[in-house]
Amino acid sequence: MASVKLQYIDLMNPVIRALKNLGGSGTIEEINNKVAEIENIPSEQLEILHNPEKGGATEIEYRIAWARTYLKQYGILENSSRGVWSLSEKGAKVNKVDEKDVVRHVRENFKKSKQESIDVEDEQDKIIEWQEALLDVILKMSPSGFERLIQRLLRESGFVQVEVTGQSGDGGVDGHGILRLNGLLSFQIIFQAKRWKGAVGSSQVRDFRGAMVGRADKGLLITTGAFTKDAIKEATRDGAPAIDLVDGDQLVEKLKQLSLGVSTKKIEIEQVTIDPKWFANL
Questions:
Q1: Rounded to whole angstroms, how far apart are CA atoms 254 and 276?
Q2: In angstroms, rounded to a whole number, what is the distance separating the alpha carbons of residues 106 and 52?
């Protein structure tokens, strides 16, 4: 069985290089993809899930998240409420850091702070914990509740005339809607949502494309799991209608951003609270 060889400390400088290649800022997805490209990480390692029983983030995404957290605490990175990470003024001036110095600096700061018993890894674990907890809530929803969740998510994201047409017993969702941009442009969208714990492969993307051709301008494929590297390539294959992909990590981040069943409170470290009743009442 394949295993992820790179540790979070090994990924600090690749994260810096990735952001410099991206022009100084990037979304989590852009950073993850660029780091994988820079380090030439094999597909089989990219597809390993951090928690196979719950799906969501892959192991490499989890370790890159640790690297980002350390670099932020070290003053190299900044992030906005919209999930965009960027090089700080200090970060823009460096091309490489001493990883061991970063770890030592961050841990010493935590010891000096009021959170003496909290390690930075614990904080990163908490970030992953709320994501996994939210995915667990979603996986336990009824099929009809999951359908309504996807409808609500799309409507809050700017879609209108959102209709669910799929009624599969496993909670799979198929439907369509219209995405309006700035009140001027509109696109017919066919969407599908899969409550999977594993990774969606290229064959599922091809099947979905076959179902959407001639019926919509674009396709949107949402999963609570992850997408394989081949699936991501297939989604943007030249000569074929493009399909936008939303994995479990992006799904829960979007729910948090829209405050749909999720509330946040930020003191020194962001605290995320999930409201299971909100999901149960859908």
A1: 16
A2: 30
